[in-house]
Amino acid sequence: MKSSRHSHAQSYIFRQRDAAGAPTDDVTEGTVQDVRPRPSGDEVRQVRRDHEKFSVIIPLYNKEAEIERTLRSVLAQTVVPLEIIVVDDGSTDGSAAVVERVIAELSDVGNHLSSEQQSGNRRELSQVYEVSPQPEAAPSGGLKETSPPPTSGCVRIQHPEIKLIRQANAGETAARNHAMSLASGDYLALIDADDEWKPGFLAEIARLTNEFPHCGLYSTGFDIVNTSLGGSFGSRSRRQQGSISTGKSGGNRDDNSGAELGANANTNLGVKTDANLGANTDANLVVHPAHTIATRGPVDDFFHASMTAYVSIPSASVIPRRVFELVGGFPEGMRMGGDQYMWIKIARRFPVCFSPERLVRYYMAASNRSAAIYKPENTAFSFEDFLDDPAAMASPNDSAVTPLGDKSPSGNTADNNWMREFVARVALGKALTVSAKGGTEEGLRAERVFAFNRHSRRLWWRLWVLNRLPASWRGRAHALYTDLAWHLARKGL
């Protein structure tokens, strides 16, 4: 794919800087000789195809303090999405008002640019450049640019439409499903209302979808951001061996701190600060690179890999819309583990594609958490659904199982055993949290149903002990164990 070159003078508006280097309101007109490559027709079409691919899905519940940061990170993507769909799941704070304000600001910018273009004024946003107080002469005799001007062949994509949908509180999974059902894009990009994308996230996903179009789930690496240097990072964790169990945007946020960290000796908890946090940099932010798999492309065995490393979390994952239509949505009514339930539904039928680039910031702190008192789930879904499921044993040559291509997860017995092991680990981790909150009956059932596991024995024994403690002791005992596990892991033990 080649780009043609062109050379002609164009007039531009340059913003002046004062002696201290600060931008001023004064502008100077000048010309520059534009000799940069003009995008080819194929390149222009590819940019437009990438733009039209993505619908961004954001479930929202009481995230007034975080939702603007999340929206700004989506708007800053180098590949602009087609639309952003925010479903407000009955928030009781000012979350929806923040979204409305961002929508109004974008509308004002769009109206301003439109009126400027119609009046012939060339002070268009994408044509304002900064120069020093004493600019050097450009080859064409104009002012020297400090930022490159747009070429006449560039593709300008307007900001995506933000759609705010309101619904009565029904939970995060229901809010996600509602947004996904309204999406127009071919790919559904998920992000929680308190997390953040780095600018290249959608661009990398677009590359993955172009290179590996047969996959059913696309994910990238991520950083875990903790907002306190003090205290225990582990006490806020919702990790369940290879995935973070979220439930933080719709309905109540569930602190699934029943994580079995100790078995994963390779966990990287090296503390560092992130120079790319930009305007959101805070002296108290600590960034932990999540321990993920290292290879780019389709994962050999999602379930095996997820036993010891992160592969997919919601805010770093994109689902093709036709996969969503085929396998169905997230399990409505499930307060914890709904994301892993969805990944299992996808990964047993499609390859999962991964990029180790850390392009997402997952924020541990939340402005709303579930109450400490246990509330039973009102759902028809359970991780027991996947045990002895005939669909999981389907042959990889079955075209009904792999409608998007000729590649599929292996259907052999060993791989399906890894699926059962992964299901057991996720279910046991969830049961720990439920039991710690007083759900004795659910904890005992999980202990009995998932006793077959061979790779999560420590997790099973923790549940066994917890179930036999007085209900009033469980929460503190569970938290103390989790804190100790994280401290030992950080010391390399």
Supply the key terms.
12 helices, 10-stranded mixed sheet, 15 strands, Spore Coat Polysaccharide Biosynthesis Protein SpsA, Chain A, 3-stranded mixed sheet, alpha/beta, 493 residues
Protein topology:
Layout (H helix, E strand, L loop, with lengths): L3 E2 L2 E10 L5 E12 L2 E2 L2 H13 E7 L6 H9 L7 E7 L5 H24 L9 E4 L29 E7 L4 H10 L5 E4 L5 E2 L3 H11 L5 E10 L59 E4 L7 E2 L3 H4 L11 E4 H7 L10 H10 L4 E12 L49 H24 L3 H10 L7 H11 L3 H20 L3
Parallel strand pairs: 2-7, 5-6, 5-9, 6-8, 11-15
Antiparallel strand pairs: 1-4, 2-3, 9-14, 10-15, 11-12, 11-14, 13-15
Explain what you see.
The chain is α/β, with parallel strands linked by helices and 493 residues long. It has a single domain, classed as Spore Coat Polysaccharide Biosynthesis Protein SpsA, Chain A (Alpha-Beta Complex). 31% of the residues lie in helices and 18% in strands. It is built from twelve helices and 15 strands. Strands 5, 6, 8, 9, 10, 11, 12, 13, 14 and 15 form a ten-stranded mixed sheet that branches. It has a three-stranded mixed sheet with strand order 3-2-7, with no helix packed on it. α2 links the parallel β5 and β6 (83-89). α9 (413-436) packs antiparallel against α10 (440-449) and α10 (440-449) runs antiparallel to α11 (457-467). It is globular, with a radius of gyration of 25 Å.
